[in-house]
Amino acid sequence: MISTLVLLFLGSILAFWISSVCGGGASLILIPILSGLLATSIVPFSLTVGTAASSISRILVFRKSIHWKIFYRFVPFSIPAVLLGAWLIKFLNPLYLQLFISIFLIANLPQILKSKADLDKKEIEYSNFVLASLGFISGFISGITGAIGLVFNRFYLKYGLNKEEIIATRAANELFLHLFKLIVYISLGFYSEFALYLGLSIAFASFISSYTIKYILPYISDLVFKKIGYGSMIIAGIFLLSNSFLQIVDKDNIHVSRNWILGEAETTVNWRESSFILEFELDDGLEIERPIQPIELPDHLRTKYDLLIQEYDKILIEKVFQFRKPTSYEFYCYKGISLTKLEFSE
């Protein structure tokens, strides 16, 4: 356990250094590490303990650079969204949200390719409604995953804030979220003693990082800061995409197989307890087929099934979906080693 805490501590210092230079992202770096040590539902608690301490330390160091207009619009709408996100942990797998976030982060690739003139363009200030909406969305995402990270970094960069203002304003916005989330997670039972130790290790590392990074930040220009910010979003997105996808495949028992039935190639995708069959033909295009039980058939086909089952040993049924075409059904009728395929429209 001690060795785990030490390694997490050293890794957290590095993560928060990178986070300061990139305008954020330590949480997205730490999520995969914590996911390997804790249950998925407890990761947000441990992460929030550490990131709350990080926000406190950054506010103390950069308190004069806080952009209060954003703070006053952002925070009030993020709090109720945290409640909603934390409550949904009981019903949703956070890994799917992480997968969506990773795609959003990678979508920032065009930003890193822009010229200095394009990046220096100051956007029109966001309306109060947009600021409130961003606060709500950030609270919702943070409530489920325990992290906001680089997801809203693009908003701060395009708003025209300098690097110190981005670090300070983000910290102020996120501190109230983190403290509120801790109360919610504890009340819902999403915590453990080991998760607390890991969170405190991250917290200690964040204090060291915040007080040392202020000596590095003055040597980084605003342009380089923006480039690094967008670049880190893309890298974090690729890393998070790989990690969340592999965990989803493992935990939801996703696997793909290819079979030949009556001379036709079918690709079967298994997910949890369900399976879907993908079939592509030049004439008919892509078909998605789902195995169903006889009771799910329309009445006229249920009657047809009752007649056919007297003639065959076994009948397997698939419901077929095609783009801009009516739903149809395929009956795979077995008699000994002989197979007959029958197709019916809905």
TrEMBL record:
Membrane-spanning ranges: 33-61, 70-89, 95-113, 129-152, 194-217, 229-249
Domain of life: Bacteria
Pfam families with a match to the protein in the record: TauE (PF01925)
Keywords, alphabetical: Cell membrane, Membrane, Transmembrane, Transmembrane helix, Transport
PANTHER family registered for this protein in UniProt: MEMBRANE TRANSPORTER PROTEIN, TRANSMEMBRANE PROTEIN YFCA
Family: Belongs to the 4-toluene sulfonate uptake permease (TSUP) (TC 2.A.102) family.
Official protein name in the record: Probable membrane transporter protein
UniProt organism field: Leptospira sarikeiensis
